[in-house]
Amino acid sequence: xxxxxxxxxxxxxxxxxxxxxxxxxxxxxxxxKDCSIKYILDLRDFPDSPYADKMIKDFxxxxxxxxxxVVAEVVGGATFAYDYTKQLLSKGxxxxxxxxxxxxxxGAELLKIARENxxxxxxxxxxxGGIPIIRPLNKCLAGNEIEQISGILxxxxxxxxxxxxxxxxxxxxxxxxxxxxxxxxxxxxxDVEGHDACRKICILGSLAFGKQIYPDMVHCSGIxxxxxxxxxxxxxxxxxxxxxxxxxxxxxxxVTAIVCPRLVSKSNLLASVDDVxxxxxxxxxxxxxxxxxxxxxxxxxxxxxxxxxIIDCLKHHNRVLxxxxxxxxxxxxxxxxxxxxxxxxxxxKADDAEELKSAISGMFGKxxxxxxxxxxxxxxxFITPNMIEEDIDANLTILSHSCEIASKIRLL
Amino acid sequence: xxxxxxxxxxxxxxxxxxxxxxxxxxxxxxxxKDCSIKYILDLRDFPDSPYADKMIKDFxxxxxxxxxxVVAEVVGGATFAYDYTKQLLSKGxxxxxxxxxxxxxxGAELLKIARENxxxxxxxxxxxGGIPIIRPLNKCLAGNEIEQISGILxxxxxxxxxxxxxxxxxxxxxxxxxxxxxxxxxxxxxDVEGHDACRKICILGSLAFGKQIYPDMVHCSGIxxxxxxxxxxxxxxxxxxxxxxxxxxxxxxxVTAIVCPRLVSKSNLLASVDDVxxxxxxxxxxxxxxxxxxxxxxxxxxxxxxxxxIIDCLKHHNRVLxxxxxxxxxxxxxxxxxxxxxxxxxxxKADDAEELKSAISGMFGKxxxxxxxxxxxxxxxFITPNMIEEDIDANLTILSHSCEIASKIRLL
Lengths: 412, 412
Prior knowledge:
homodimer; alpha/beta; Alpha-Beta Plaits; 3 domains; 14 helices; about 25% strand
């Protein structure tokens, strides 16, 4: 009889218990032995829960119960969860988690502790909710050198952008709707400013390239400055604006990683990923492009990934399922994104806008101007050719003496 | 030092060797030990190959070499490959394969032999080429009861349908182009009539529901009867015609499985999957819908999956990576698709077509008529409501006394 404990009975925790109990019969068949949830740790009281008899408040009960083989840490954050996870792994108990913050900030260390103690630390749920991505990247695509990972990694911002694109709702109204529907928090900063997506691209990059990428190494900008005018220009040029997390190698020793809104060509499937859905595109030197799509958050989708990891741990108790990456001391491992090439969408405002065109063309060479219905005479939008970003900035600095740079958004 | 053998030096075999050698350094790092390809078995001579020194013609050299831990069987077919695979697994050597025919017809038996001999039989490459789907289905989604799998599983037919949809090329011309580009074989039957897709949906269904589904249990129809008129009607109603393999449970003891062209709503991402790309949509009771997309065939994409499996076998030598399904003696496990519900697109021809409308409405109740530019007076197209397929057929049989049933295509 294999016993499981769940730490945290919030949205993901209660979903994990619900899905496990619902499908327990077939889960036991897959594991090859009887297994059940023995404890649910939460500081709150749930007297009316059907699982009230499993509820505990003392972490040490789980830590010291030799029957417990696997613990689902779904409490979130990097304080208690960090401490608990270290203790559990040190005792040889496998831990599975949806905690992207913890994996993104302490992944290398926790994977090492797991390996040393002959158990597993799995986190399929930490990126893309229920979408299988960690295991496919680590195993199915292991024969490839990964050339790029780009993804829509945050459902809240994708919902907001979808409303802006499809229904011409402005950012503030779309955010309000997302909050009313429960897709966005009261304080939406972590989603809207890209911090959530940043943690996820850090995890994917760490796994793909073997070295921990910490969130503070990654430039991160959000969607709060995107206007409906930008959405319309993008649409007219054949693009959709999406918040994209990207990571790719520059050379054998360096990567670039960035989270920012981007113009995504409509020929790219990522442009068709709408509402709260997430998708991750991976390019490998053998496989070419593959894409993984699904619900990137939510109670049962995230629980699906947690329970999948629980099953894998139970099936391979006391056997390490190889997954690891090295720690990274050198902050220069992630190169400055300003030193890399990109195409940029730029919108400027100036009284004599039309007259600036020859100066702009002189600066950027072959560029593309974009139109929109009712474009005012004092506005111009264009897409630069591919060039080093700091060179684009230098040009825009000069240009800013004669106009206002109203928007600039990178292309994917 | 772990040694690998490759059986078959055709497209996938040579791709496997190429990708492995290209990325060998990082592969060895992932495996945690030095590993190399020792033998390549092929009856043909390749004197100019850079791997000529590894080429052999005698299978027994591989079988009897204790250094060989993993064999990639990429020779195809269910004759030699079947015999070789059984012998290798019986000796405790893991086998990885892209051979969908063999997995679809002998999977249960071969998985059992692998388990009994403490080795692995992996076949990520057998479905969707390089797209990760076997491992995600078996592991990441293990916490779900799978409710449906539907996929575009054959790149050749998807290329042909894309040409018909996007460029109004007729079937024969599109097939000819596919042959000229090397996407279709000289004898295109296995692709065009759906047999290739059938083997793949059998593998996915066997894995998802735990019981072998054999290809002869699955109704299979191809795309050779699809006309440009059908494509246009579908387009006007908001659908794209795609060759879809589907499997889903009917109850605890039965499934349905079918391969046929279908009208796919444009709100479904599968409708946007074009050219030689494949995509597989999986619905689980926890995760909801997830979709996996990429190149479903080709030298390096397929090799990507083969090499990924090789790495997994090397990492877990002498340790069984649990995956299995039961054999299935009972042909009624797959229920007759005629007994299940479906909506049907129907195109009829009759001199007095318009006058048949009241009879048709009487038969089918609430149905939807579709228009197309230049629709001749003697033609009507409509979509039936969702009903048992044999009831639709019974109606159409009656109708066929007054008209010609020119096309009928299921909706997804």
